Amino acid sequence: MSTAFISPHRKKHSSSGLRGTWQRAVDAQSSNEFTGWVVFVRRAAEKPQALYHRSVSGAFSERLQLAPTPRTVMPIPLQSLLECDPDFIGEAGAKALQWLEKQEVEHRELFLRRLARVLEAEIRQAQSVSPNIIASVEVLARYRASAPEMLSLLRLLLQERPVCENHMYMVSLCRDIASRGSEHAATLADLVESVLDAQVQSGIDPSVEWQTRLVVESFRVLSHLDPNRAAGPVCRWLPSFGVLEITAVLEEVVKAARHDDVSVSPELCAAIGELWDRYINNPALANAPGILAKLLELRGLSGMTSEQLIEQANTSHSPAQLLYLLAMRRPPFLTREGKLSIYSEAIKQLAGSNHRVALQQVLEAVMKDPDLQTKDLLDMVSHAA
Amino acid sequence: MPLQNFLALYAAPLVRDPAPLRTGDVVFHISVDAPGPSRRWTARAFAHAGLVARDLADYQLGEPVDVFHMGRRVERDAWFDSVNGSRVDLAGRLAELDDSVRSRLIDKALEYFHRRPRMLSDHRSWYWMGEPQSSCHPRLPDENSAYGFSCSTFVDHCYSEVGQHLVDLESMPLTTARELQELRAVFRHNTQATPFRRLYPGYLIGAFDLDRYPFRPDNWDDWKDHGRYIPAHMLIS
């Protein structure tokens, strides 16, 4: 049996001493000779019975339950992150990252592999995952985003039910692990979609901030991993979202639908129709014009001509406002002729509504558009007059 | 009127006209209710500024107003409580700002509202008392979707994004060593270490008060104090 021992009476210890302990534990483990260890627990005063363990088996197994994973042999900055008060996670995380940055590459890799093992063990054992563990996973992802253990950790965390605040952070991490077309993109997109489905089915409470943020983040990640998914059947949930999250979600759906190889799904078309009716009939809802402008662009991306878009805008409470917002988004799907008719109509409507600042901005946008010429601008102005 | 003073309207209710708040108006919280039965106010040490999130037909002092503002992050809150939260005491309106540009202004504010979730940075304030940062935060070098604003630089940034410049930022004076020390005592690490051009909420209030944009007074110091907008007979100093 190989043992590493630090006296529990040593109240002050150097980080090199602990690092040595940790290193001996790792060395012993890697050479398959490791059957037990003695660990020094910094919080000896609070939990004297957990002061040290002499073996991982036999008579000391009860004591071992107080320290179910060997997190105490982790380097102090990583251990602090795992154990600190959640209010200080930001500071502890910054210190852990700074500390890791100072380590030699080989040592850092060792520490991070160790951290991954500790995290996996803790996540498997824990009834609920603490914010400290989530923060540690984020630290791990900074350096080992492409490592297989990251996928395994994310899978464990994202499959956990019921969906909770932790999912929001883990969904967000998927963006760092994979990108469009990469090996794990489809797997992660599946996981994100299943989290979103579960959350929407159990209901989204607009007063619970993490739930609305989870919705937005899920669409951002889907758009990043696979734009076809962001504009696909998952859009059936769009009408379930409230005014705060729908703006950001629609922005992501528009971004996804702007890709040449992405087609607008029937579910998205149906959702656009439902949302359009809701916001056109309730112009007082927060950011209703901004939302309608995004819906208008989605309608354009789904094949509506510029004339049809103008017709749609004219059914709104303020067509000038809507056409201005659409023009300022510079929708890429419009042909030169399409742009001409949208800009012309926007200029005409804004001049008629006396929206002078908006009119000036549209004229500036026309001047900067490489597809249009000065002659076009003169035509538009004379059309408006 | 470019600047509506609801404290003054409250103090003289007989001359009160309906005062609607419009989406994108800049609102300020400058006073705190003093304890005691008679309603009096003291000036807040730091005024707070935000953007009205949606129209309100007829506002009276203390009614809830939906506001986007920079707290620890860009947040959306109901302002109605002068003691434990915020309240709309003053409202500034750019007369020429039409409905179209107002809606784009709120669309811009919402871009900052939906930040990326990160456990490591969610527990830290993104408030920044220094030169405004629209795509990073000096204390969060690893966070690629961060920003750093104070309440007034956030408001000013949203306006400048839609082509409206409320204050001439380049002409503002640099903070003195003493001011920096005072700011650091309050905002601690979220304060820029080197002198910077601090956008006081008082400058924004001054812009609306004088209806002059971009605001560039002869003496900037005269406009730092927002307490001057509390009616003298209602003020407890």
Write the layout of secondary structure elements.
The complex is a heterodimer of chains A (385) and B (237).
Chain A: H1 15-30, H2 61-64, H3 76-83, H4 89-102, H5 105-125, H6 131-144, H7 148-158, H8 165-177, H9 185-202, H10 209-225, H11 227-230, H12 243-257, H13 266-281, H14 288-301, H15 306-313, H16 319-328, H17 336-353, H18 356-368, H19 374-384
Chain B: E1 3-5, H1 6-11, E2 26-33, E3 41-52, E4 65-70, E5 74-79, E6 90-92, H2 99-113, H3 119-122, H4 151-161, H5 177-187, H6 201-210
Antiparallel strand pairs in B: 1-6, 2-3, 2-6, 3-4, 4-5
**Rg of chain B:** 17 Å
Q: According to CATH, what is the class of the largest domain in chain A?
A: Mainly Alpha
Domains counted in the coordinates of chain B: how many? 1
> Portion of residues in helices of chain B?
10-25%
Q: Give me the secondary-structure category of chain B.
A: alpha+beta
* Computed Rg of chain A: 28 Å
For the sheet with most strands of chain A, the description reads: none
Tell me the number of structural domains of chain A.
4
Helix/strand order of chain B: EHEEEEEHHHHH
Give the N-to-C terminal Cα separation of chain A: 93 Å
Number of strands of chain A: 0
For the largest interface in this structure, which chains are involved and how many residues does each contribute?
Answer: A-B, 49 and 32 residues
The N- and C-terminal alpha carbons of chain B lie at a distance of 28 Å
CATH topology grouping of the largest domain in chain A: Leucine-rich Repeat Variant
Instruction: Give the low-confidence spans of chain A.
Output: 1-19, 25-68
| Assembly state (oligomeric) | heterodimer
Global geometry of chain B: globular
How helical, in percent, are the residues of chain A?
A: 55-70%
Identify low-pLDDT runs of chain B. Answer: none
Mean pLDDT of chain A: 82
Coarse shape of chain A? elongated
